[in-house]
Amino acid sequence: MPKKRSGGGLSPTQQAAKFLGVSVLAGAVLAGIALPAVGALGLAAKGSVESFDALPANLKTPPLSQRTAILDAEGGTIATVYSRDRTVVALKDISPYMQKAIVAIEDSRFYEHGAVDLKGVLRALNKNARSGEVAEGASTLTQQYVKNVFVEEAGDDPTKVAQATQQTIGRKIRELKLAIQVEEELGKKKILENYLNITFFGQQAYGVEAAAQRYFSKSAKDLNIQESALLAGIVQSPSRYDPVNDEAEATKRRNVVLTRMAQVGDISQAEADKAKDAPLGLKVSRPKNGCITAVKGAGFFCDYVRAVFLSDPVFGKTKEDRAKIWNQGGLTIRTTLDPQAQKSVQQSIKDHVYTSDDVATAATIVEPGTGKIVGMGQSRPYGIDVKQGETTINLSVDNAMGGGAGYQPGSTFKPIVAAAALEGGMPVTKSYSSPYEMEYPSPVAACEGKRWLNDRDNPAELENENETEVGPYDMKEATAKSVNTYYVQMISDIGICPVTQMADKMGVQRANGNKLEQTPSIALGVTEVSPLTMASAYATFASRGMYCTPVAIESISQRVGNKSKSLEVPKSTCSRAMSETTADTVNTLLKGVVEDGTGREAGLDSRPSAGKTGTTDERYAAWFVGYTPDLAGAVWVGDPKHERKMVDISIGGVPHGKVFGGAVPGPIWGDMMSGALEGEPVSEFNLVDIPDSREKDEGRGDDGDRDDGGNGDEDNGDGGNGDDGVIGGLIDGGTDNGGTDGGFPGNLFQGQGNGGNGIGGRRG
Hints:
Radius of gyration: 35 Å
Strand content: 5-15%
Number of helices: 22
Shape: elongated
C-alpha cells in the first residue's frame, strides 16, 4: 500500500507522476507567468517520472539570519545589528489566529494536499485562462517555503537573489521536487513554523516575530484576529500592502484575509465583520539596526567589535567565512566595555570638547594585566552626515580596524625610551649635558648592524622649549620637564634598536601598519600611533612590565534555530616586556610628572597616578597618556586632517593661545579616570627610591612656557627642522663616510608637510 504523508496525500512518486501528467497544461501557472505549454517546460516536458526523480532532492536549509545583540560587560545592550531583522520562534509562540490567517489566504487546502495542490493548479489554470492573465497562483505553502529558502541562501548577493526568484518552469520543477522532500521529512506543523519564520513581511522585518514587533510592538503570540489578518495579507506584496505607507490598501487586503478566514471556517462571519470594522491599530517600532543606534556613545566601540569579528581568524579562516557568520547573526556578544568607565569617558569628552570645535578628541581606557578595553569614545559623533560633523572613522584605533592614519604621540613616547635604557642597565641617575639646542649626535647604532648618520652638510638639529632649559639633567628631572635634548642624547647613547624592540614588546606599532622608523627622532614621538595603542602600551607600566594585547570581546553565544552554542573568542596574549624593576622605576618617574611636572593638571587627588604629556610640532596634536595601578588611558586632541594648528583656538568654550598636553588632554584624562574609578578601592604603585634631582639653579624656570596663568607645560617651539623632518639616514655598519653618501636606505625619515611631522622644538 502506498505510503501516506503527514497531512494526507499521495506518496512522493505518485504525486510526481500526477504532477508530470498535468504539468504540460499547468506549466505556465506553476511558473507564475504566461508561457506556451509546449517547448518551455524543459525537463517536465519529457513526461517521465525517471527524469523527475533524477533531480536533486536534498534541500540544504541555511540557518536563518537573525539579529545580533552587542552587550556591555554587565549585560546591558549597546546596540542591535543585523543583516535581516528576525527572531526565530516556535509554532507554540505564534498566535493561532496568525497560523490560521496565513494558511487561509496563502494555501487554504494546506492540511489536505501534499507538496502540490492539483485542484489548486487546475482552479488557477481555469481562472487565468478566463481572465487572459495570471490572476491566481498555484504554489503551495510548502513550495513558497522552499523558494524562501533559496532567497535566504542567496543572502545579499543580487545575482543569487535573481536566480532564486526567476520565473522559469525549470526552477518551479526543482522547487516542487524539493517541496516533496520537505513534506516527507518535516510534516505540516514544522513547515508552517519554518514558513512563518522565514517569510518577509516588509519594513525590514523577516519572520512573524519581527513583523509583530515592527507593526504592533508586541510578540507574535499576542496577535489578535485583525492584526494576524493584516500581517498575513502583507506577505503577497510587502510593498503594495505596506500599512505604514498605504493604510487604505493595507486595510482592503486585511479585510480580504478576514473574509477568506470566515469562508474556510477559521472564524465566524460575526468575528470577521467585527474585525473589519476595527482600525489597523498600528503601534510601529521603527527599525533599529547598526552601530548608529548604540547607546552610551559606544557607536565607535560597536564598530570596533565588528571589525574584530571580521578580521580575527578565530571566527573563520577567510574574510568571507567570517562575514557569513556575522551576516547570519543570532549572536549575543558580551564585550569588555564597562558602563561606568564608558559613561565617564563620554561625559569628560562632552565637558571639555564640543562637537562643533575645529579640533576633536579621542580617548580610550584599558585594564592593565587583562588588555580589556573598558571605555572608548570621541567628540565627533558617529554617523554618515558629514555636514553635521558626523564620521564613522574611529579616531581611537588603527587604520585596519576602522581608524585613521594615527597621530604623532610627541613626548608620550619618551617613557618607552627610558624603559629601553633602564632595561639595558642604565642607572636612573644617569645625567646628560642636555643643552638648550644641539645637532643630532651621529652616528647612532640601529638594528641589523646599521647606523644612522646625520647629514654633514645640512645636519638635523633640535632644541628644548626655552633657552633657560639647560642641563645637566638626570632622568627624573628630564622626564618631569620633558627635556628633548636629554632624551635624544639617551637614544644616541643606547642606540635606536633597543627602543624599537621595547616599543614592539609594548605593542606600539604605526597606525597604518608599517614598522617604526629607525631614526633617533623616534625619541620625540614622530611615529603616528592611535590612542588605543598608547593606552595599551602604558598599561604595561601599570602591570609591572606585562604587556597584554587589547581585547574587546568577553564571550559570544550563537543562536541557530532554537538552539544556542558558544563560539571561541580572541584572548588577550600577555607577555613580559620588561622587568618589574624597570616598570617600577618608570612608574616612579611618571608619578613625578603628574606631581611636579608637565602633567600636574591631570593628576588624581584621590589615588596615585602616573603619566606623560605630549605635544607635537606646530601643535597639530596634544596628548596625555597615564594610568593608575588599575586602569590606563590615553587622550588625544587635535585635527584629524592635520590642518588646524592649536594656536589661538577655542576648545570646549575655553580660549587657548597655545594648546599643551597638560592643559587640554590632561584634564580630560583626569575627569574620565576619576569617574571610571569612582567607588573602586585605591591601589598603590610599587615605587623605587630615586635620589632627588640636583638643586635648581636660582634663575632657571621650572617647566618652560606657561599657559592660562601659570600651568607649566610643554611647548613645541619653531626652531630646528620642524618643516623638513630629520635629515639623515641609515648606513651599513661597515661604512662610515660621515654623511649619507651611499647610505641605506637614505633620508629614512622625512616630514610630511605642514611642518607637523618634523622634530624641531618638540616638547612635553
